[in-house]
Protein 1
Amino acid sequence: MELFGTVILAAIVLGLLFFSLSKKGSIRYAKMPPGPTPLPVIGNLLQVDGGRPHLSFIKMSKTYGPVMTVHLGQQPAVVLVGFEAVYEALVKNADAFSGRAEIPIFTRVNEGYGVIFTNGERWKQLRRFSLSTFRDFGMGKRSIEEWIQEEARYLVEEFQKNIGHPFDPTFVLSRAVSNIICCIIFGQRFEYHNDNFLHLLSLLNTNVRLLSSPFTQLFNVFPSLIKLMPGVYNMIWNNANYVKQFISEQIVKHKETLMTDSPRDYIDNFLIRMKQESANPSTEFDVNNLLINVSNFFTAGTETTSTTLRYGLLILIKYPHYQEKIHQEIDSVIGRERLPFVEDRRNMPFTDAMIHEIQRFIDLLPLSIAHATTRDISFRGYNIPAKTVVLPVLHSVLFDKTQWESPYTFNPRHFLDENDQFKINPAFMPFSAGKRICAGEGLARMELFLFFVALLQNFSFSSSEDPEKIDLSPHASSFVNTPQAYKLYVHER
């Protein structure tokens, strides 16, 4: 009887404690934006398409508005839909929405280090240092332009080898793009037929596909599933570790040959800063942050731009009349005797508009990377607590009907005025916006222009498939949009 009474008392205490915590939680989130009623444990997951979550959020927003709360498991997340809501949050309230949400798969792989998935002083110091170093090594200046031009020559030579038979351009393009970031971080490029280099790029490509799978998104909502279904996670982990091992070897070589008065690249600059701050116990400049930073830049600097180029060539094959217009503009402005320069872009409005429309239309990161609020904020009449997960749906910005004339049609006129001159649109956010905008935006813009123009200066492209039947829908959309696998024909001009 005494035991029964003790159990009853414990149950009452636990019940009161649960009620108290629930009440505090309900008070904390009482004035959050509206949203669908969550189920216990799983929240609103049954209402979210794991393969295309951004489309589910857009559908929900028709009921709950452009700022809403969706529960991903037990985690409430504020979802921002449409240009106005995303711009108001990320740009007009940049500080409050500049946090990075904890994403379990990246937290485990990066172990809390690096610039992309961290917050606070670590993020601020590493981002400031990285942007400064990129500028020192010529981001936006002639030195990097020359590296890209040199790489464009190798890329053209590689395409020439494939004239006359269909081939998959995936790894040819990724090798060219990766060599640019390799020049910045490692101080060297790699030969296209270097087996180790090709293996690394294959691992990066595999990880992008795995990170875009619904299984990985489930891990991010329920991290404990990694223990029950470790297969996908172990593949991501092993691939990432192979890349990190390669980078660790590069760091060791740099340490052995470092000349503090003559830094060669990003790694050298970081090692010098490590020496300068060696007596500071709270320094963010240690080998762990160096390793993860370089790993993140190597991955992001390779996959995003090369995927855009690959998707862009498929679009050009589907719309050969646009390809011909670019050929005409290149012949008129540059000719075929010299390589393109970045300054040519201002005299090539149609080509510039095409590249921008490719970026808009392929919608590379439909959900961006999850943000978090850095403090309590009142936003559009709602109270959003600090450290709340925020999902800016970039897809809804790039396809916003109030901002684009024909958002679901590939239309380069989105970036041309009535005089056929290039015009920018504030809803063009493929690199996100605000304080978490991609640090490599300037580099990516240079690469896309110089590589696209160099290829189209020398070649035209086609497919054995009827252009009208080419499917431009992405292969995966839960994290990164990648094109369907295809082979192209290269024709010398």
Protein 2
Amino acid sequence: MSVIVLLTLTGLGLGALYFLVASGLSLIFGLMDVLNFAHGALLSIGAYGTWWAASGNLPGAGPGGFGFVLAVAFGTAVGTVAAALLELALIRPLYARPREQILATVGISLAVPALLAAIWGADARTFPGPKALSGTFGLLGADVPVNRLVLIGAALLVLAALKLFLRYTRYGLVVRAGVEDRAMVTALGIDVRKAFTLVFAIGGAAAALGGALGGLYFGSVDPGQGTSLLIFAFVVVVMGGMGSVTGAALASVGVGLVQQFANYYTTAGLGDLSVVVLLAALLLLRPRGLTGRLA
């Protein structure tokens, strides 16, 4: 029983990490029709920004208490700014040229890890997390890492915030309307471009937060971390339904649990294969994914 509890909560923690990455990816693609391969780079930027700040390089930030909260906020803010700049400088001129979009974002996804490796080295860096989050707590005989609950809580907050943004805020409604008929919304005097930049920044913030908290899960950061997590984020987005935040949340839970249980009860590494099999089976039964709709 204790093994089941541990695997379940660990799988939910991993699924929460996947959701933080996939939510922004799904939001950007569903609302803006941009397949952003540079999303993993935004995660890496958030992870390294948090690591740099928590290592004592930012006044007031540190590996414990409020200092760590400040470090996470700094890493998330850096990722948010990077996402906004990416949309303004690179994506906005290419909205009508999807092929060039893909090439440009793939280029960024390769350049950012190389830049991070050039500055801080290619080896993984130990993540300076709080001691309170590095321990465990007992649940039904299992010793569960505390940081899994932090990831789950963060994912739930992000899910609630995104749904509220899309349904009840002016910019959320503007963006949804702009996706359906951009010309009509523009004719009403509404600047859709500002709303799209905001959406890109929100997606980048979610990815950067995933990178910041991913350091807690893995215990380290490395330049290629964002790229590896982006692969599973794309799987989650496809399984959940392109553009569906709710679907991404459901798919994240399924992928995280399947991966953890398969890795434990079978040969190590088969967890990744089981995720691919799950994706194929789902697409055969539901080609549009779990929900196939926005929000």
Protein 3
Amino acid sequence: MKREFIVLLWLMAVLPCFSVGNMTIRPGQIWKDNRGIHINAHGGGVINHNGTYYWYGEHKADTTSSAMVGVTCYSSKNLVDWVYEGVALPVVDEEGHDIERGCILERPKVIYNKVTGRFVMWFHLELKGRGYAEARYGVAVSDTPVGPFKFLRSGRVNPGLWPSDMSQASRAAADTLDAGNYKEWWTPAWREAIVNGLFLKRDMHAHDGHPAGQMARDMTLYVDSDDCAYHIYSSEDNLTLHVAELTADYTAHTGRYVRVAPGGMNEAPAIFRKDGKYWMITSGCTGWEPNEARMFSADNILGPWTQHPNPCVGPGAGKTFGGQSTYVLPVGDGFVFMADIWRPGHPSDARYVWLPIEFEHGLPVVRWRDEWTPVEYGFK
């Protein structure tokens, strides 16, 4: 009896990390880190570097969605158990600094540059006290995955440059558009003007106290198989998505970019590639409230992009299970869809919806599951 008790104690000591409960992801539930604290990494993304996953996201306070801490980082070997690695990019107390404490810093994503050996972080930035008027990107770099990241700059995208997918005739037509003729929004004429480049032209140059360049709000990053990287963001007052190529060191734009679904009101882009085809899941623009997910595909990341039906299936699919897309994580030959259930009244209590992506009839499907384990899908 004593021997059996000793064996039982030994099993309890060595096997907890293999328990079914510990290896289960429960979408929408509290997800605790190694300290027993709900993971605070919202609107973020995950990379796999040398066999370790690193999750970066917005640190949310209890009462405000403004950035009071910065971008946090967690690490994991199995996608379930996460270790708090600290603040990868802290906000600063210097008055007037771009990332001053109290700014809006959202949707941080990190990619690794094989040539420079640096980790590059991009995020959506709004200056303190300016609401959502600035619509900037921010970029920072680090020599290690956990940071600290060094802030480089913020700004708007590709000032003075037309999209590469616009013909000369389309550019000439857009150049004739006058915002003064479209003061009333949401009319058929205004919508047509947006599609034709009304806001695109407006933001080509500095105006109304704003710097030149395209607006950049909800965003993600994508590194292609040829190691070229792209910045995908919601622009033109959240009415049109842009896909912009990054320089070889991933810290700036080359000037080459395209528009996706002009006037379609898409945000929260999450992109992945399977069997040579690019897929992008987005959401509509309904503030903090969830809506039906959208999906697009393309044979080239620079388009053209084709829209498909909502990929979500199951209870709550019509509102993306109460969440909003933030990232698609490649894991081996599969993919994990990541979304956030926002709680603006209690931001730090926002929840995560992670679900495996399946393919049916050639189309991605995100099916609701109360719980699932990465192992059952072959994720390692």
Protein 4
Amino acid sequence: MKTQKKRTILAAVLGATCAMPMMHARADHEFGDNTPFYEDDSWYDVSEWFDGNDYNPTDEAIGRWDDELFTYADNATSSDNDNFLNWGDYGYNSGNESDWFYDYYDDGYATWENRFYSNYYDTNDDGVYDAYSSYSDTDGDGLYEDFNYYTFNSDADDQEKNRMQAKSQQKEMKSTEMQVSGNVEDTKMVNVRDRIHLIAMVSQSNGQPMMVDLGPDQAEVQLFKGDRVSATGHVMKVGEKSVLVANEASMKNGTIAIDRSGKKYQGTIEKVKTVSVRGTERKLAKVKTANDKTMMVDLGPASNLDSDLEQGAKITVQGVPVKVKDRVILMAHKIMHDGDQTRVDRRVAQAN
């Protein structure tokens, strides 16, 4: 069956959860020089760390000399299976007859928490996320009042158009969770960007089936046709289909919490640097991973981080890859170090 091309720039989403004070973004903010997340001066200062010594782990190919510059042509021919760029629009694989849900789709690492919704976007479908939007329900009325959008790549095309498309979704979204309960009619493993997710078709009491995304790496889930399942989360639109992006699910073998923090990498910090990004001091780290590659990681606000996250520290990070000019940087959402776990707050106020 022919792949549906292309997905809309933003999925229509019904949004997030409980109460917490928020940083207020200005919904009337005009698109301008402050919109890129990384100011040029800060980013180029950081790039001086890299001396042509494998700063970008995404375009290597076995048996090919690497010039240490990321290009999408290189990446397309790469035999390196540990890179970020395993992606696709929503659609079906050729010859697949199981068409009750897509074989692959991009969820944009959608995150709902504390009446706050955020999503990453690949605005030009080149395989790397290059923009981000967030929405917050500041008064708890179920509607998102505040909107924030920025791009990681100041060279991206149609930035204003993309921002306006993101903003247009604000009125369609609600910050309340939804619960789906019923019997499993079928299950399917689906490629969601760089991970494999378990999708269940759940028959509700009203007779209408609902697709439920139970998240990545659910090896412990024992779910079969006819089983009873109850899931809580938020609904997003993928093409013409709706899917509940579950954050928790209960079934016969127990209740699971679903981790959507991103792909996991282990390594050692080689260098750290604190830079000012949109008025906040943030810590960036150069990390040598377990397979001897080097990656740049944005660890988040420096004030919220363990002071021991310095050169030589062993860490595990989970996050989302984004493109800044010709470099890929991992936006950490969870950091594990010395037995402690830190969730990175990615809520960012608009720059003045």
